[in-house]
Amino acid sequence: MRDLLQEIDEWGPEKVVCVSDARTGMRGVLVIDNTARGTGKGGTRMSPTVTVGEVARLARVMTWKWAAVDLFHGGAKAGIFADPDSPDKERIVRAFARRLADQIPASYVAGLDMGMTEHDAAIIQDELGDRGAAVGVPESLGGVPYDQLGVTGHGVAEAVDAALARQGRSVAGARVAVQGFGAVGAAAAKRLHELGAQLVALSTIDGSVHDPDGLDVPRWLDARAEFGDACVAKASAQQRIPRGEELLVDCDVLIPAAGQDVIDEAVAAGIRAGLVVEGANLPTTPEARRLLATREVTVVPDFIANAGGAIAAGFAMDARYSAFRPEPTAILRAVAERTRNNTVLVLDTAQADGVLPHQAALDLAKQRVRTAMQLRGRLPSIATA
């Protein structure tokens, strides 16, 4: 918490709320970063290792992500310090919701993140007796099924296609490596396969596989559906490679879609892809991005490439109290259009201004947030970056 206090700046965070419950052992945190453009919205993650600083970093990412896609919601994130596989998970989630009843949904609308499921979102709604308390609930309960649509991965794939097209290259035949064959990575692989790309490497927490001649994407999607992360155990010995090597294989496009800070300077020095599209939040360090730039490797920033979930969540936010649901095809169209446009805009701006794409994206988001803050009287009109 002491370190977080040193990170407070003109943008936020506006509010950090720590809660606990002695009966369940629940401990949680809510960080509302900036609400100049609307009510705080961001996922709630559950992990025994989650930290206040981590949640605060992710809340700031949501501030920029909402602004980058030009949707009027504020940046926020929440975390529950618990094992998502705990048999007491429901009691913990209910305790978390109760302790934040004065914040949800007035200041924060809960969503899904690591360790949380549609069922958990429904529990939050039920505990607070408010359909507007959370998004991401099952479709049977009136939710918008954007997770089943794989919207984040779909958007990542569209960012890949747009970035390659900008370089005068086709996605058809492009060799792609995906770190993290979870919800985002698998959906990206599926969409890229539809577009004609060739998946040459993938990984899960259980291991990595590589085939320079291309992996059978439909077969791997089926294996993931049946075995989860353990699907890599079904690979032949010839395909298995050490964990982490999937980042370094010979390919055209690398999609880091797993954890934070997985690409540091040492890893960046060995990357052989010419294009890195960030599927995860914060997968590259600033030092790595600078090194990649000197090597003429293009990086599409996380809050541009993986904003599909946020775009779809915007539909869900609008539909919380409505009897009507948006058409899935309309959601996917919006994800593709906004992601592709933002990818090209950011890469063009970065080239024109002589800055890294992350800086160009950040400048775009900051300007939109700054304008909202000025309109609300939270910043003087002469404020600078």
From TrEMBL:
Residues 143-377 form the Glutamate/phenylalanine/leucine/valine/L-tryptophan dehydrogenase C-terminal domain. Belongs to the Glu/Leu/Phe/Val dehydrogenases family. GO terms for molecular function: glutamate dehydrogenase (NAD+) activity; nucleotide binding. NAD(+) binds at residue 152. This is Glutamate dehydrogenase. It holds the Pfam family ELFV_dehydrog. Substrate binds at residues 41, 65. The active site is at residue 77. SMART domains: ELFV_dehydrog. The record marks 113 as: Important for catalysis.
